[in-house]
Write a structure and sequence with these properties.
The structure holds two protein chains of two kinds. By secondary structure, chain A is of the alpha/beta class. Chain A has one domain: Rossmann fold (3-Layer(aba) Sandwich). Helix content of chain A is 35%, strand content 25%. In chain A, the strands form two sheets. A six-stranded mixed β-sheet of chain A has the order 6-7-8-3-9-10, with helices on both faces. In chain A, strands 2-1-4-5 form a four-stranded antiparallel β-sheet, covered by helices on one side. In chain A, helix 5 packs parallel to helix 6. By secondary structure, chain B is mainly alpha-helical. Chain B contains 14 helices and four strands. Chain B has a two-stranded antiparallel ribbon with strand order 1-4. Chain B has a two-stranded antiparallel ribbon with strand order 2-3. In chain B, helix 3 packs antiparallel against helix 4. Chain B starts with a helix and ends in a 9-residue tail after the last helix. The chains are: A alpha/beta, B mainly alpha. Chains A and B meet through helix 2 and helix 3 of A and helix 8, helix 9 and helix 10 of B.
């Protein structure tokens, strides 16, 4: 079953063409990696899917519905969540409050002016469950902005899954991590993406090849190749354009 | 986490008892001053819902104070048998409606554009009050609208024509509004406003309707400001353009900053200091506004946590709920 379709997506920023007709079909439950050199347009694709930008041309379908031009908050409420390449958390709120923000939104309590927040035990339980999933439970009272980089990245993923989305988009979740941290991050991503569809933009090939069922290579705003990891690894065009010698 | 709730309740009750018995020991002039502090405290707290909680810098908050004041005055003047309490509620509702309409346009803009738009709407309302002489009395204002018969509360009567009676009326309404406002900051919506202020983009990507939430807090802030304006009108038994002009918009901003915009209670402290300070300085010199200006500059430059920032953290911890669960 197709959960998402990108149909002929184009994007230009005041004359600078970034994407030239991206087509992509995403099956429900698949783990899909988008790779490509810097500036290829990977993050732009995420920004078009999640409503940060509107495409210059083309359409985005999610669960069969045309969501082109929808606002980020509308798309999120439909069950699609994303993380950011540059950590984007509530820095002056605690770790607990960060995740609770997402849990409250998921429970449609955003405009609730009657309940007393501290008495909402269900919200507290759900928040703590997610905190333990991302291994931040014992740091729940720390200020999010003061966490170490690796923990902030985990926080970023925690916010993304806490709205209980069907489709998760992770934008370079292991950026700036050490090898050790990256290994932990892979385990974390595997854990939280169980039963969901995952799209991940990543430079680290270890992450890509250990997680993805299917890989799409973006090169200068176009799809260069798309297929299972083995096929991509042996694709001559991909080797020339991106993987190069490092993987040989 | 240490739980300071019982201590907080004791202090809260002590303050309320103190406020209730204050007229027994205060002079008439002092009671009038306390009355003034009460409605300005509500006005300043309502301003802080925008600035302190939502991070929205409004230069036009007198719009709603004025709408409340004029609505109460006009309804009492022209509607025969208009109950006093209903005129306050009506003032609040008209202010909230004004806030919803003006807010609808303002919350779509950010930073300087938001501030300038609130200013523009304020100037528009002020000009209307100024020019629409037939209704508002223009510069001459509207006076003598407070009904003479005492307020019948069923079990007792309250004579608002007496200084003490008006004080109790104002105090009761203000305390009810402050309690409701305080509760609001403890609800999921209060948290929504905080989250949007801290990181608007992330809130949007978590499903929060940013503009709708801002509009709601804008409307609530306008409601409380308008209630404060209604109480102001009743207290003065007179309303003129000074209740809706730029001076009033700056005054509330000043009170909030003076006390401190980082906490719920800061603006209340700000109102206390502002009313006492202006009274004292204006008894010393005619140039009191100049001194106030200098104070404001110093405040913004060196002292932006306000007077509440001077209170030791241990004392403040009693009032401020701890972070986390």
């Amino acid at each position: 079953m197709v959960i998402m379709e990108l149909r002929d997506l184009h994007k230009d920023f005041s004359g600078l063409k970034v994407l030239f007709g991206i087509n992509l079909l995403l099956q429900k439950g698949e783990k899909h990696a988008i790779i490509g050199p810097n500036g290829a347009g990977k993050s732009t694709i995420f920004n078009l899917i999640t409503g940060k930008y509107t495409p210059s041309q083309g359409k985005v379908f999610f669960k069969g519905k045309d969501i082109t031009g929808y606002l980020p908050n509308e798309i999120t409420r439909m069950g699609l969540a994303r993380s950011f390449q540059i950590t984007n958390i509530f820095r002056t709120m605690t770790v607990f409050e960060n995740v609770r923000n997402a849990v409250l939104s998921k429970n449609n309590a955003r405009l609730d002016v009657f309940s007393r927040l501290s008495k909402m035990n269900g919200i507290v339980e759900e928040t703590e469950r997610i905190l333990s999933q991302i291994d931040l439970l014992e740091r729940k009272n720390e200020m999010a902005g003061e966490l170490a980089h690796g923990h902030q990245r985990a926080m970023e993923i925690g916010l993304t899954i806490a709205t209980d989305p069907e489709l998760i988009l992770l934008d370079e979740p292991t950026a700036g991590m050490s090898t050790e941290e990256t290994k932990e991050a892979i385990k974390l991503i595997e854990r939280v993406s169980t039963g969901r569809t995952l799209v991940i933009v990543e430079h680290d090939m270890e992450v890509v090849f250990s997680l993805a069922h299917r890989i799409t290579v973006i090169y200068y705003g176009q799809v260069l190749a798309s297929g299972p990891p083995e096929e991509i690894r042996n694709d001559q065009r991909v080797k020339d354009a991106y993987l190069g010698e490092e993987k040989e | 986490m240490r739980n300071s709730t019982p201590l907080r309740i004791v202090i809260g009750i002590a303050v309320i008892v103190l406020l209730l018995f204050a007229p027994r020991v205060l002079t008439i002039v002092q009671i009038r001053m306390a009355n003034e502090i009460a409605y300005f405290a509500l006005f300043a707290v309502s301003y802080n819902f925008l600035f302190g909680y939502a991070g929205l810098l409004s230069f036009g908050h007198a719009s709603y104070f004025g709408l409340g004041a004029y609505t109460t005055a006009l309804s009492l003047k022209h509607v025969a048998g208009m109950p006093l309490l209903a005129s306050i509620a009506l003032g609040g509702l008209v202010g909230a409606a004004g806030g919803a309409i003006i807010g609808f346009f303002c919350v779509r803009r950010k930073g300087a554009y938001f501030a300038l738009l609130t200013l523009a709407f304020n100037q528009f309302l002020w000009a209307t009050a100024w020019k629409w002489h037939k209704v508002t009395g223009g510069e001459d204002g509207i006076g003598k609208f407070v009904p003479k018969s005492p307020l019948n509360l069923g079990i007792a009567t309250l004579d608002h024509n007496q200084v003490e009676g008006m004080y109790y009326l104002t105090l009761t309404v203000v305390l009810l509004c402050l309690a409701a406002g305080w509760y609001l900051t403890k609800t999921p919506f209060g948290n929504t406003i905080k989250a949007i202020k801290v990181n608007e983009e992330r809130a949007d990507f978590l499903g929060y309707q940013v503009n709708r939430s801002k509009l709601l807090i804008f409307t609530i802030a306008a409601f409380f400001a308008a209630i404060a304006g209604s109480l102001f009108a009743l207290f003065q038994d007179f309303v003129a353009t000074s209740s809706i002009d730029l001076g009033m918009s700056t005054q509330v901003l000043f009170m909030a900053f003076l006390g401190g915009t980082g906490s719920f209670f800061g603006p209340i402290l700000g109102a206390v200091i502002y009313v006492y300070f202006t009274d004292w300085v204006s008894s010393l010199t005619n140039r009191w506004e100049f001194i106030l200006g200098v104070l404001f500059i110093l405040l913004v430059l060196y002292f932006h946590r306000g007077f509440i920032g001077l209170i030791p953290t241990k004392v403040k911890a009693i009032f401020v709920t701890q972070k986390g669960s």
